[in-house]
Amino acid sequence: MRTQVGIIGAGPAGLMLSHLLHLYGIESIIIESRTREEIEGTIRAGVLEQGTVDLLNATGVGERMMREGHFHHGIELRFNGKGHRIDIHELTGGKNVTIYAQHEVIKDLVAARLKAGGEIIFNVGDVSLHQLDTPTPKIRFRKDQDGELQEITCDFIAGCDGFHGPSRPAIPETVRKEYQKIYPFGWLGILTVAPPSAPELIYANHERGFALVSTRSPEIQRMYIQVDPRDDIANWPDDRIWEELHARLATHDGWELIEGPIIQKNIIAMRSFVCDPMQYGRLFLAGDAAHIVPPTGAKGLNLAVADVQVLARGLESFYRSGKTELLERYSEICLRRVWKAERFSWYMTSLLHRHPDHTPFDRRIQLAELDYVTSSRAAATSLAENYAGLPMEFETTAGVSL
Ligand code: RFL
Ligand code: PHB
Q1: DSSP readout, 121-154?
Q2: Which fold has domain 180-270?
Q3: Taking the model in full, what pTM does it have?
Q4: What is the superkingdom listed in this entry's lineage (predicted)?
Q5: Which ligand is in closest contact with the Cα of 293?
């Protein structure tokens, strides 16, 4: 097989890249290790930045999101039994917080790629990358997990295969530097069949640990509580989860959490991670393959989409005029944004969680910070600007704004 851009992974990064390249007239093939049903059924992110929403709309894949998504104007930070609203819309000059589940974005992108004749090969196994520092890098894989070995010869390879995929390890260890922080806590996430308990997302800081109230639809709600990342979900019968949610979210003004049957629950660990550079020869990493953020800032999917916008522009410039300048600067351009999102995600995580090693002094500093961001317009504006998403502003040395 031969294609211009071989894409490994059909997550938000790989699918959006393939979609953008198609709009630029550049062909690509996506290979994905899971089945279509699996990728379309995996529950992950919920919050889309305004820039992501704008891009989905501008490229013709936003119609269902505009119909079925939820558009909030703010978020609530809750601590000491009281809620404090951050008016994101007002503080950012009109940006929204959009709630539209990642697997719905995936469904929309898969449908758009297939409708346009795009090629996605699902359920592949044994994926490996070869000849990355030549003009004809290659991807090898097996169809249907253990079928015959196949090879795709490409001009470029996009490693969009998430944190555990084979792309990042294909960059020689002597070339890449990795930065990492593992947090001593995780999130237990649930889906429950119940009406929303609040009109906007609630991020709660409590002595017993963090809690988050989010939504998926008028009928299904998404909630999280901070737990030990090594804990077993078997230790969390539904009653215990509700007990913690009630305790951590309780207010002095009688606010009520609405319970319903829990239809899904799992525990995830939390880490911050950055790989620098995000490119090697003709391989470009995008999304979780290159960087991970804890979900507290709701940035992961949005960063993946931002990366592939830069990559698609670079590839477009290469195929249109043979220029390599943007491709050469891919890592540098992306990492400026990535590190700012890493900082914000680390900040939100530090601000909202109970830290096992916190002294009484650290705890009072945390509460003072919460008091500050919810009472100072300057501090609230900074939080709102980061939460809603920093602008996609960068210039090429030729002065072309992207
Ligand atoms: P993905 O989504 O992991 O997709 C990678 C794809 O590559 C496939 N793959 C392979 N394919 C071929 N060959 C191989 N050898 C392969 N190995 C892996 C995988 O099957 C998969 O389909 O990475 P991508 O595209 O970079 O997207 C990143 C996002 O998925 C991730 O950052 C977000 O889900 C993070 N995240 C959130 N991000 C937000 O922007 N807003 C949120 O509100 C938000 N909430 C969250 C989150 C992540 C969470 N979890 C579960 C980690 C909430 C949670 C709980
Ligand atoms: C979600 O709805 O899954 C969600 C919302 C906000 C976050 C993370 C996840 O910060």
Answers
A1: E-S-EEEEEE-TTSSS-EEEEETTTTS-EEEEE-
A2: D-Amino Acid Oxidase; Chain A, domain 2 (3.30.9)
A3: 0.96
A4: Bacteria
A5: 1
